[in-house]
Design brief:
With 340 residues, the chain is of the alpha/beta class. It folds into two domains: 59 residues, DNA polymerase, domain 1; 270 residues, Alpha-Beta Barrel (TIM Barrel). Helices cover 33% and strands 19% of the residues. It is built from twelve helices and 14 strands. The strands form three sheets. It has a ten-stranded mixed β-sheet. Strand 5 and strand 6 form a beta hairpin. Helix 1 packs across helix 2 and helix 5 crosses helix 6. The longest helix has 13 residues.
Amino acid sequence: MERKKLLGMTLDELKAVATEVGLPAFAAKQMAEWIYGKHVGSIDEMTNLSLKGRAALAEQYEIGCKEPCDVQQSVDGTAKYLFSTESGQKVECVFIPDEDRATLCVSSQVGCRMGCRFCMTGRQGFGGNLSVTDILNQVYSVPGSERLTNIVFMGQGEPMDNLDAVLRATELLTDANGWAWSPKRITVSTVGVRKGVERFLRESDCHLAISLHNPFHEERLQMMPAEKAYGIEELMALLKKQDWSHQRRLSFEYIVFGCLNDTERHARELVRLLSPIECRVNLIRFHQIPDSPYKGASEERMVWLRDYLTRHGVTTTIRASRGQDIFAACGLLHSKTLNS
C-alpha cells in the first residue's frame, strides 16, 4: 500500500491524521513543527512522538520529501535541480544566490499548455499538474533551502492553470504553522488567466507578476496564443480596479526582442496600458532557443527602453540574466526528453 504524504497538509489535516493513528490532538502541532520548521526527512526523526505513535504513523504515512535526482551548476553560482514528481515525471527548479539573498524559482506543472512561442517549456507541451507535495518539495529539499529569502513561481508551468495546488502551497509557506514566511517574499507569475487572477487576488496576499511581452493584442497573440482567451486589455481593466499602494506588489515581465517589441511605438503603448497603475516592469533578455525566429534586443536598446519607461512614470529595471549556460535562465526550463 502506498503511504500518504504529510508534506502539504495543514494543521487541521494533521490533527485528523493524529486522531486516525491514535495520537493525541496536540501531536499535530508537533508534526507541523518537525515538517515545516525542522524539515525532517522521516517520521522516525519526530522524537517527541512516542515510539508506538511513530510506528502507527509510519504504517500509513511518510513525509513525502524527495532529494533532487540531478543538479547542474552555472559559472555564475546559479544551480538547476531536477526532481521526480509523485506521478513519476521530472521537473526543474532553479536556485539563484545573490550576495545576502537567495531566490528559488519553482515549477507548478510538468511542461505548460500556454504555448508561448519563445519559451522552451511552452514548446514542451503539457505533461500534468504538480501536486502540493511536488511544489513544496522543491522548497523543502533543495540544497541551501535555509538560505532562501524569496520564492518565485516562474519555473515550468502556468501557476493559474494549477491554482488549487499553488494556493495551498502558498498558504503553507505563509501559515504560522507552516513555513511562516511573509507573503511579500513570494511572487506568483501568470500569462494572465483572468479567472485564476481574480481568485488569486481574493485568496492570496502574495505578489503578482504578469508575463506581458507585447502591449498590442495582435502582436501578443502571435507570440502568446493564450492572448486569444486571456486578452491583455481585459486583464488590465481588472488589475486597475485593485489597490496596489499597500502590501501586494504588481510587476510585469517583458522579454525584449530585437526589432519586434522594443520600438518607440511599443514603449508609448506600454506607458498607456500601464498608467496610472502602480507597478514595476522587469525587462528580460531573450535567451535564444533552437529553431526560434526571435532574436534578443541589443543592450543599448534595452537601456533605451528602460530609460524611456522610467522617464514616463513606469518604474523599470533590467533583470540580470542568470544560469544561461545550464539552460536555467528565463524561458529555458525543459524536461521533455527526461519525461519521454
